[in-house]
Write a structure and sequence with these properties.
Elements: E1 4-6, E2 9-14, E3 17-23, E4 26-28, E5 31-34, E6 40-43, E7 47-54, H1 55-75, H2 83-99, E8 106-114, E9 117-123, E10 129-131, E11 134-136, H3 140-143, H4 145-151, H5 158-175, E12 183-189, E13 192-195, H6 208-211
C-alpha cells in the first residue's frame, strides 16, 4: 500500500511541444508531510515524465528508465528512444506488476517531441493507457479535464498554455486537500526539457463559500 503520495499531474500539448504541471506536495497518509518533492523528470533526449501516487514507486520507475536509456545509448547507433516507445514500455511495466498483484502505485503522464511529432499519454497503476491532447491524473482527472476540454486548442502558445495550466492548478489547490501552493511547470520541445523553479500561485480566499462553508448545510451530517 502507498505511504507517501503525490497528487495531480496535468499535461497539455501546445504549439511547439508539451507542457506539464504538478505541485510539490507529498502526503504521509492524510498528513501533508513534504512540500518540496519534484514529481517531473526528463527521460532520455525526447521525453518528460510526471507521476502521481507513491513517491518511492516513482523512484523505482525512474531506476527502470535509467537502465532502459543506458541500454539504448550503449548501442550507439545514432537512434534514441522516443516518447511513444517509453510510454509503451511503461504500460508493460505497470501491467506486469499488476499481474503479480504487486502494483506500482502510480499514475503516470509521459510527454515528448521527436522528429517534430508531439506525443502525450498516460498510464495507470493497472496498465490502463491512452494518448490525448491533454491528460491529467488524480483529482485532475475530475477537476482539470473539464477546464481543458473547454479551453484547450491546437495552436496554444507557450504563454497561454502556462496560464491554462496555472488555472487548473489553482482549481486543484482550492478543492484538493493534498495539493500545496508550490508548483513547477515543465516544457519539452525539440530543443529539450526545461523545468521551472518552484513558485506560488496567486490565490483568492474571500469567496463566500470559503469564508463560511457551513451556510446552507444546517441539519446535514
Amino acid at each position: 500500500y502507498p505511504y507517501v503520495t503525490g497528487t495531480s499531474v496535468v499535461g497539455v500539448k501546445y504549439k511547439d511541444g508539451i507542457l506539464m504541471a504538478s505541485d510539490m506536495g507529498a502526503s504521509y497518509g492524510s498528513t501533508l508531510r513534504y512540500k518540496s518533492v519534484e514529481r517531473m523528470k526528463p527521460i532520455g533526449k525526447h521525453s518528460l515524465l510526471g507521476a502521481s501516487g507513491e513517491i518511492s514507486d516513482f523512484q523505482e520507475i525512474l531506476r527502470y528508465l535509467d537502465e532502459l536509456i543506458l541500454y539504448d545509448n550503449m548501442w550507439d547507433d545514432g537512434n534514441s528512444l522516443g516518447p511513444k516507445e517509453v510510454h509503451s514500455y511503461l504500460t508493460r511495466v505497470m501491467y506486469n506488476r499488476r499481474n503479480k498483484f504487486n502494483p506500482l502505485w502510480n499514475s503516470l503522464v509521459l510527454g515528448g517531441v521527436k522528429n517534430g511529432k508531439k506525443y502525450l499519454g498516460t498510464v495507470s497503476m493497472i496498465g490502463v493507457h491512452f494518448e490525448d491532447n491533454h491528460v491529467a491524473t488524480g483529482f485532475g482527472n475530475h477537476l482539470a479535464r473539464p477546464i481543458l476540454r473547454e479551453e484547450w486548442r491546437e495552436d496554444l502558445s507557450y504563454e497561454d498554455g502556462v496560464k491554462l495550466l496555472e488555472k487548473c492548478m489553482r482549481v486543484l489547490l482550492y478543492r484538493d486537500r493534498s495539493a500545496v501552493n508550490k508548483i513547477q511547470i515543465a516544457k519539452i520541445t525539440e530543443e529539450g526539457v526545461s523545468i521551472s523553479k518552484p513558485y506560488s500561485l496567486r490565490t483568492f480566499w474571500e469567496f463566500n463559500a470559503f469564508r463560511n462553508p457551513t451556510v446552507g448545510a444546517e441539519g446535514s451530517w
